[in-house]
Design brief:
Elements: E1 22-24, E2 27-29, E3 36-40, H1 48-61, E4 65-69, H2 73-85, E5 90-93, H3 98-107, E6 111-113, H4 122-134, E7 138-144, H5 150-156, H6 161-176, E8 183-188, H7 192-205, E9 211-212, H8 220-236, E10 242-244, H9 251-264, E11 272-276, H10 287-297, E12 305-310, H11 316-320, E13 325-328, E14 334-339, E15 342-348, H12 352-382
Parallel strand pairs: 3-4, 3-10, 4-5, 5-6, 6-7, 7-8, 9-10, 11-12, 12-13
Antiparallel strand pairs: 1-2, 13-14, 14-15
Helix pairs in contact: 1-9, 2-3, 3-4, 5-6, 6-7, 7-8, 8-9
Length: 383
Amino acid sequence: MSDHNPGLRPWRDIARRSSRQIMVGNVPVGGDAPISVQTMTNTLTSDVKATVDQIRRCEDAGVDIIRVSCPDVESTAALKQIVRAANVPIVADIHFHYKRGIEAAEAGAACLRINPGNIGSAARVKEVVDAAKANGCAIRIGVNAGSLEKDLLEKYGEPCPEALIESALDHIKLLQDHDFHEYKVAVKASDVFLAVAAYMGLADAVDCPLHLGITEAGGLIGGTVKSSIGMGNLLWAGIGDTIRVSLSAEPEEEVRVGYEILKSLGLRTRGVRVVSCPSCARQGFDVIRTVQKLEDALSHIKTPLSLSVLGCVVNGPGEARETDIGITGGGNGKHMVYLSGVTDHHVEDADMVAHIVKLVEAKAASIEAGESLSADDSHGVAA
């Protein structure tokens, strides 16, 4: 994972909320760790091949942690194979049956998504906590406005920030009563205002890491907008240690949107950050289709770098000066290419996309080689 962007100007910097750090497998969550990006599989967990194939696609997109549903014995039985095949920590989603939590911990899950108050007696809570301790497993408390406890709904009359916070604190106490502190908490709602208010209140009340999400956000476009507004507000305020964008879309799309949110705030850097214009009658080439082609062709690039794609010379040169590689539309089918903010050469319209892809790939390889050399040098000095 990439660290917080060191190049930010002071007026753009974000002071993150101070939280204690826990480990979810080999991924640190909270403290000064990078904000992790999560998603959830939608395959039957008992179908090992389908689940692992989906995990692979999410790993290619850069996911840090993946959650899988474990509603039955068949799922927890398959979990051991899935954990072994995955390259990222696996969170087992447990709702009500305490035995599934024990089985998942023993199968190698890095974290259990479970609400302690929903799994029965204090003795059952203790059994799950003991299993988590014995297997080095963290716990994620997941409060949701759509499934609040009946007594809280009766007390408050409806889902509200105070109800979500009280539910979270009640679940936290059940873990603390058993001297368990390796937990993170989410207070999700599909209502942006409700979720943001609940997270802000909880952030003041606890020191544990917070997992952000606007639940049931919607489809790819609508859900992206809602998630960006809700989580963007919280992240800008320094709240949030791990995120999941909940979309009615494939899990890898959730990962991509999650990274775009973090990249826009300078909180993570991964892959190509594209700066492009909305296009207008001045454009010297088809900006919309060009950007689509470039984003598809460059989706495999993991190295952080920037690319500006501007249709004309009005804003193009200024934007190109701020990016690693840039292109602005020109006349007669010839377009200006900028390297490190400086005009460098022209490219013909027909060759433009392939040419830019080669430039980006070469720049990424150069950056990676430089980072590798630097790491080798520092290792040699230390030796």
